């Protein structure tokens, strides 16, 4: 159930991350949701390493990890695709 939960969290986290950090990142909402899924994986992985929890159940801490990971991935994607 862990991977499926990360995907669901990623969908939600991607939408929340786009609302928190609206910007000129390319790709629109679909790319943001995909980046949110990747961010949920990143947030779950980092949270597991630091002992903060995992993204294996629907709770507030897991959602924070997923949104935090999505924000990080969205920021990195924005920096990588930014035109100089």
TrEMBL record:
Highest rank taxon of the organism: Bacteria
Residues that span the membrane, as ranges: 27-50, 62-80
Major localisation: membrane
Membrane topology: Multi-pass membrane protein
InterPro entries: Transgly_assoc
Pfam families: Transgly_assoc (PF04226)
Keywords: Cell membrane, Membrane, Transmembrane, Transmembrane helix
Gene Ontology annotations for the cellular component aspect, listed alphabetically: plasma membrane
Subcellular location field: Cell membrane
Family (UniProt): Belongs to the UPF0410 family.
This protein's name: Transglycosylase
Organism annotation: Chryseobacterium piperi
